[in-house]
Amino acid sequence: MIVEKFIPLTFENTVENGEIEWASPSNIALVKYWGKKENQIPENQSISFTLNECKTITKLSYILKDNKTDDFDFQVYLDGERKLDFEPKIKTFFNRIYNYVPFLKNYKFKIETKNTFPHSSGIASSASGMSALALCLMSIEKQLNPKISKSFFNKKASFLARLGSGSASRSIEGDLVVWGKHNDIEGSSDLYGIKYPYKVHENFKNFQDTILLVDKGEKQVSSTVGHNLMYGHPYAKQRFDQANSNISVIKNILESGDLEAFIALVESEALTLHAMMMTSMPYFILMKPNTLEIINKIWGFRKETKLNICFTLDAGANVHILYPENEKEQILEFIKTQLVAYCQNGHYICDSVGLGAKKM
Q: Which domain holds residue 322?
């Protein structure tokens, strides 16, 4: 599908005002996206688990302006408080998507949003936030053009979300989502994420994710800055080739149910992501001492018990612990007794793989 198909030529209906609310989840990448081209096109493919409880709930209120103006008219609220510092990012997003959402300047918008997890804490709030907003906008477009199919609705929502945050393209639908054109994944695209289209072994159904909040403060480096550091990175090509290969490998793992191979790939991907940041210029170390303590504890526990516990990381210090549902009881006990002490104020979040966004 080419981008022109996302440009509406006409609208059948007129909508004067209303409000729409969506809850959209965050996601955790198993094969990581790190590095992008122009227009938020990924340098490499990625695949992620969609989370169930870590989500952004966004209500979009809109009223038709008396006269169309040459600028966007909106306000952003987080937890009921006006967030002026969020508004430049939303304006950039609106500028990027205006050709595909030409009614944006016709309305005055109020964007009210809240997260079920700490903002800027290494959990992908931009993914859930931008996808929730994109879904709200698509709901307005659906009112203007009721004949839009569910498939087109989801593809365009993912397409729009991607232009706000690349990983947001993976938060629309499905428990497993692939973003980035790959020869082994039918229907995959650089323009939007797709629900993983192949058989998944029972071992990976309702997989668990406990997020240990090692550091709930602002991230040391934004994801945008981090992605840009891949330009001219001495190991960029090798990293992109590795990710391309790992998509093929994880496809086989997901079908076979090989948990040992899954653990090796997921942990390697997490450490590679941080290796890219540590070897960029300028360089960053986003892990904290307690991040490393947790990783070593996980390795020791896994060796001792033979349980299928592993970790992954985003671009921050927090640790996502992944494990099968049938091992949940023992692993949660380990987390509570041995790992929570390394969390900031003892905070952690228990989550599981979910099915995507939901209209409220």
A: 207-352
What's the CATH code of the domain at 193?
3.30.230.10
For residues 127 and 171, the answer to whether their CB atoms sit within 8 Å is yes
Residue 316's domain is classified under what CATH number?
3.30.70.890
201 dihedral zone (left: phi>0; alpha: psi -120 to 50; beta): beta
Number of domains composing the chain? 2
Please tell me whether residues 194 and 212 are part of one structural domain: no
Q: List alpha helices for 202-313, DSSP H.
A: 223-228, 236-256, 259-278, 289-305
Domain match, 146 and 81 both: yes
Query: 235: helix, coil or strand?
Result: coil
Radius of gyration of the CA atoms of the chain, in A: 20
The answer to whether 128 touches 54, Cβ cutoff 8 Å, is yes
Q: Which amino acid is at 144?
A: L
The band of 225, judged by pLDDT with boundaries at 50, 70 and 90, is confident
Q: Residue written as tokens 């205006």?
A: 98
Whole-angstrom Cα distance, residue 230 to residue 32?
Answer: 13
Which amino acid belongs to residue 23?
A
Predicted confidence at residue 125, as pLDDT, reads 83
Under a CB-based contact definition with an 8 Å cutoff, are residues 193 and 156 in contact? Answer: no
Choose between 335 and 355: higher pLDDT.
Answer: 335
pLDDT digits (tens, 9 = 90+) for 298-318: 999 999 999 999 999 999 899
Domain termination residue (choose one: 170, 198, 226): 198
Tally of CB atoms within 10 A around 300: 11
CA distance 350 to 343: 13
Same domain, 126 and 252: no
On whether residue 55 sits in a domain, the answer given is yes
| Residue 359 covered by a domain | no
Question: What are the tens digits of pLDDT across the range 33-73?
Answer: 999 999 999 999 999 999 999 999 999 999 999 887 789 99
What confidence tier does 121 reach under pLDDT thresholds 50, 70, 90? low
In a domain, 357, yes or no: no
SS3 287: coil
In terms of domains, do 242 and 98 share one?
A: no
Q: How big, in percent rounded to 5, are the helix, strand and coil portions of the chain? A: 40, 25, 35
Has residue 360 been placed in a domain? no
